[in-house]
Amino acid sequence: MASHTGGDDDKYKRQDAVSAAVTMGALFGTGGLFLAAVKTSLERKHVGPWAVFSKHGHIAATFAAVGTVYEFSRVASANLREKNDHYNNAIAGAFGGAVLGLKAGRIPAVLGYGALMAVTGAVFEYTGGRFQGFGRDPDVDEYERKEMLRKRYRRPMEETIAEIGEGRSIRPPGYEERRRERLKEAYGFEVKPVSTDPDRV
């Protein structure tokens, strides 16, 4: 959520609302067409391939209309207000939800869908605009951030060995000597280390 109210360097840059709306409408329309195709494939009786458009084409049309109106309203609102913040998503959600509610043909549905999409869009944008939460700080170097995480969660080798034990490819310093001592105590004979290096005596 960026507020563009600063000086010349932080001045809002206008966007093309029509181009953004056409792109988003095509994207949403493609998604709606996919859902229409899935719904057609789940029909119990045999229907032809054109049933995607003739019987369930309204799904693709509704998706395309909602996507187009939402994105146009969002970008137009940002251009008029000269700010990129969560209020643009609230305005766009109100218009997009109203388009979705028009299918029901009742005013309460139009208002209800508009309010629901407005709140959802505004909250989503206010909390970072991504499912993972807020984005990473661009001023922090990625290498330094990873090194900090490694140091924060790194555990001493002694603590790890105390929990899971030696062996199974975990061989801390002095492992071979301790292993020979354990074998001598358990079986009564001494194991002499053998080197596979032919140059080593």
UniProtKB/TrEMBL annotation:
Tell me the superkingdom of the source: Eukaryota
Q: Where in the cell is it found?
A: Mitochondrion inner membrane
List this protein's GO terms for biological process.
mitochondrial electron transport, NADH to ubiquinone
Q: Topologically, how does it sit relative to the membrane? A: Multi-pass membrane protein
Pfam families, alphabetized: Tim17 (PF02466)
Q: Which UniProt keywords are given for this protein, alphabetically ordered?
A: Membrane, Mitochondrion, Mitochondrion inner membrane, Transmembrane, Transmembrane helix
What transmembrane ranges does the database entry give?
17-38
- Major subcellular location class: mitochondrion
Q: Name one GO cellular component term.
A: mitochondrial inner membrane
Full protein name: Tim17/Tim22/Tim23/Pmp24 family-domain-containing protein
- Where does this protein come from, organism-wise? Triangularia verruculosa
